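$ fold --in a.seq
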Amino acid sequence: MREQYYDSLNLLKFVLAVIIIFHHWQQNTGTVFESFNFHRGMIYFGYAVEFFFIISGFLMGIQHDKTVQSDFGNFFRKRAERVYPMAALSTVVTTIVMGVYHYVTGKWFFDIVPGIWRIFNSLTLTFSGGVVGNVGLGINNPFWYLCVLLICYVEYWICSQMFSKYVIKEIFGYIGLCAVGIGAHYYKIDFPFLNNPASRGMAAFFLGVVLFYIYRDVSKKMLGIVSGVVLGFLIMAAMVDFKLFYDDQWGIFTFIMFPSILFLALLAEERISFRKVRILGAVSFEMYLWHIPALVLLQTANAVTKVSYSRSAMILFAAVVTGWASLVYQMLEKPLSQWLEARRKRK
């Protein structure tokens, strides 16, 4: 698959990052608007994280042949080097600003006390989905996505090797893994590596892998028609009565709406170039990393100034976080990634 097919996904990741920022901004500030809220509204926008998992799974599907031929050390190191350095820096900064918040207000931000065990699990990205399995342990709780994503990477490598060795048709194997995640979620299983965060990630990630095979093998015209009809139906249903979505938003968004949007975005790239927005995918990662410490600083300042929040303030906050994320990407993440890649190639 050509590299240009990544560009529309980068735009999607940026939009999702903005949605997550809006969602957490309202959640942490306690702000509720008269109409359309990203938190405590009709829609639970926290499920945007599932779309991140779907995109990650889709991209892994593209790299399937390389994964099968790669040993685990090289496979995991490449992804760990992408995630750990900047996540660790964000964790350290978040710990410091939480200390400042505690000094100013006399209480801990969202009752998150940065003790030794919590800091350790946050730095190692082991506080959610795995053995510890408690999302409340994280210094920067949205990092549960990164904890579970790393687990999904490991599961993907192991299963890709097994499917290749035993000549199992990959798509059926990944459908099975997706089904395991769905079942664990609905039956509320709470085992290490198969708990609520892990099952959410597992179901969406391996759905993304399955969607890659569908996109590769199914007629693009058929995909466009079906995706357009499905998305149009969902929009009409929401306009008629949004309560139609109340029975299970997780299922509707993850397995019906998000795949339709994904296919339509990929198909749009057949006609429209998204190359100019390619950088947004990289910036979206930094936006995800830094919006919580930025919120802690905002709440620290507000403890003194007592300024009321508005929708304009929310948009301004997202713009500031985006600017900071762009700066961090250009000055820290990009040079570090290039150095690590050069070092890996020398070895």
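$ fold --in b.seq
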Amino acid sequence: MDTVKAILFAVLAFLMYFKSEKRFIVLLDVQGDPKELLTMDNIEEILKVQKDMGEHMHQGTPKNAWNYVLLTGKQNADEGVETYENYLKKLKFLKDFKVEAFDNKAQSQALRLLTHMFIYAKGLFANYVTGETIEQIDTAVGEYDKFFTDFSTDFCNEDALANTEKDFIVNLLRYTPPDGSVEFAIYEKAALYNIFPIIGTRIPMSGFPTNYWDRFALVEYSRQGYCHLVCSVLMQEKVENKRRGLEDSITLLTQRANLS
């Protein structure tokens, strides 16, 4: 009985360490001086969009010309999206914007920590014990989705791979009803458990949007690691599960903005 109590206390203490938060993700079309973004309050990340990756979902041309993404700090419980939108409307250097609120729940933070621990541990095992690698597509001997081959040429060439800046993929996901989450989970598990440990991926922020979208995730890669994901045979095999699982999505390849 004492053992059970100790375990329950440890679990409770673990969960209490994480406190639920409300934050905003802000998609921007900046037409003025982007350094003006530095004047905004309570901003934790300013990301410059490198490429709209939505084409790989066969959704046609991007709906909006987002060129920056902001992630705010914690918001007051009574701070609504409409209030924040009214603040953004006053900023003359913004041509367009979209604000999405998301809950960074305590359980989600705890799960993300456990996922990182698994990715790190399996990565160490793969690197130092099994020598596991990620099989890559060979565009010279096979027919592959044009998006992936074009991406490989433009973003995975020698010059691009020399870029040491971290890539951050901004993901907003809406599942296909009624059970698209099941299809998407097939793709997600393949990435999380088979590819992420090998390339050393992190998920610095995630949450559950409060309006249209079902999931939000910010995923960090090295350029080489992201190229290994996008150009992997496993990605080719599972991307159809992702397409069937998502009714709508926004996927933006970004890097931290250098505004100094």
